[in-house]
Amino acid sequence: MSARRASRVYGGAAAAVVLLCAGAWAVAQKADAPSAASAPAAVNATPPAASTDPVLEHGRYLARAGDCVSCHTAPGKPAFGGGLPMKTPFGTIVSTNITPDPEAGIGGYTEAEFARALREGIAKDGHHLYPAMPYPSFARVNDEDMHALFIFFRNGVQPVAQKPPATDLPWPFSMRGLMVGWNWLYLDKGVYQGETARSAEWNRGAYLVQGLGHCGDCHTPRSMLGGVKAASDRKGEVFLSGAVIDGWYAQPLRHTDRPTMAQWSSEDIVQYLQTGRTGHTAAFGAMVDVVQNSTQHLSTQDLQAVASYLQSLGAKAGEPAGPSQASLVAAAPQHPTALALRNGTVEGNSGAMVYLNNCNACHRSDGTGANKTFPALAGNSVVNAKDPTSLIRLVLAGATMPSTAKAPSPITMPDFGWRLTDADVASVLSFARSSWGNQGGAVTAAEVAKVRDSLKPVATAKAP
């Protein structure tokens, strides 16, 4: 263990009791995301016209890469004006105004103060920000990009005079000074340093994923103190290994023993990030806003770099990769499950009967769905995930695909929570997770009940 790491661990242990409270705020990273069952929320204000300043336009691009607008825009209010309430078990955090208004926004910030806020979580007046703003990830942004971001927010954003309500948390969470200890443990200062043994494309992907994209803030498990357990692939295999956040299971983005995005082709990854759908899957939950407000605006070259980086994570040299979704979809039409559903020889199989009555029309007897319309269930990473939280929520509450420039139709999966009991949902999901080559494991009625309870007031169907 390095001296720096040892001092962090031992020093952190002394402050663990209070930091357990303060650190929990990192979990609020995507708190109170809009329900996927509702129509995707659009950015409210029309963005300013393109500038002739290339630095400003580069900053606009980077702001989209960071998805700044999603958290700093309240429903029905001007872009970047703040005021979005993010509910957590410990209180409500209200996002701040980051327009160049000198009183309500950040118009009074110098470039150095702007960079300190993004990299260290310290505001102009010196108070500490909660890590609901992902400054531990933004710390990796290099000086050139930080300058471009500053120019964009100073000159490319319309000033908004509204001053959002101040975040007022109950004690002890209101003690922002506790963040000094949290930062000591979890904030690694210093911009991204490329790996010389890797290609320029790989390093670009790593820079985007670890930095402005802040993918790890949702897709990496957190410690008891609320910090991510690994901030990059250099810190261990837990990085981007999947985590439950805001009632959804953010899927692993690295190779595991089950199908994940890391096994997709580069074309599929790029298409997913541009449109929120591929021939076999679709975005839901918080990823709807990410695709609509952020990744669809990135260049194909940058998205290919992201794909190159993700495809490398967890890949074992000399070890065969697990079955990909494409291979399972190709084999699904002749799978015994598909043949039994087609022949009607599923009597006595309660999960299969629920599937035939509720799912078969769209997802088909072979679980292959319909291209870019109804996601395939065969080989689907959500269906095969170790944690079935997202799958349960999709069935109970439904979901709506993103609406993007290249795929404008926000196709919706209806909710079934009103008509299926917990036992029904458990049986049909257990059936889907063990069919067409899937290896997801059984789902229990107790697991369904837990998710249903978190989604109230979703109607509860009663068993006859």
What does this structure look like?
Among the domains are: 25-167, no CATH class; 325-454, Cytochrome c-like domain (Cytochrome Bc1 Complex, Chain D, domain 2). Helices cover 39% and strands 4% of the residues. It is built from 21 helices and 6 strands. The strands form 3 sheets. It has a two-stranded antiparallel ribbon with strand order 1-2. Strands 3-4 form a two-stranded antiparallel sheet. Strand 3 (243-245) and strand 4 form a beta hairpin. The longest helix is centred in the N-terminal third of the chain and has 13 residues, at 143-155. The protein starts with a helix and ends in a 10-residue tail after the last helix.
Mean pLDDT: 86
Gyration radius, rounded: 23 Å
Spatial gap, N to C terminus: 60 Å
Structural class from helices and strands?
A: mainly alpha
| Total number of helices | 21
Helices and strands, in order, run as: HHHHEEHHHHHHEEHHHHHHHHHEEHH
DSSP E strands, number? 6
Low-confidence parts = 1-46, 458-464
Largest sheet, in brief, is: 2 strands, antiparallel
Helix content, binned percent:
25-40%
Overall shape: it is globular
What fraction of residues sit in β-strands?
A: under 5%
Query: Order of strands side by side in the largest beta sheet?
Result: 1-2
Summarize the structure.
This protein is mainly α and 464 residues long. It has helices at 3-14, 16-23, 54-65, 68-71, 111-120, 135-138, 143-155, 179-186, 200-210, 216-219, 266-275, 286-293, 300-312, 325-331, 336-343, 350-358, 360-363, 381-384, 389-397, 422-433, 445-454, and strands spanning 85-88, 91-94, 243-245, 248-250, 399-400, 412-413. The strands form 3 sheets. It has a two-stranded antiparallel ribbon. A two-stranded antiparallel ribbon has the order 3-4. A two-stranded antiparallel ribbon has the order 5-6.
